[in-house]
Amino acid sequence: MKREEEFKTVITLNDAISAQMVAGMLNENGIPAAVFGADSTAMLNGVGNIDVKVNASDYEAAMELINTPGDTPEEEEEETEA
Prior knowledge:
The chain is of the alpha+beta class and 82 residues long.
């Protein structure tokens, strides 16, 4: 029997929308990610301890992506105007 890979939490957030956005960004970059703890209470109240988790083997790459500052729309506009 194949042993399932362990999950690691890359970030814990207070709202489900932010957690879904982080998981989506990771998935778009080839790192399978899932949101845990976004139950109906958290979704209705918009608050709760919601974890974004990845496979343990993807943890370092996920942390690098999460901690890399991205361009904000204002920064992109300044670059095109220069």
